[in-house]
Amino acid sequence: MADHAPATYEMVEVKAEDIMAERQSLYAGFMKATTWSIGLAVGVLVLLAIFVA
Q: Is the dihedral of CA 45, 47, 52, 53 positive or negative?
């Protein structure tokens, strides 16, 4: 079997300030995509109501 050296890991503290900008940008993108998808769904329903009914 292969001989493995013991792995050492250095753990660093992650503070909220370090990740808040990334999280806020992801949330803003999620909210924008949600708004567009809801608008698109409403538009499709309106078109269905016009052309099918």
A: positive
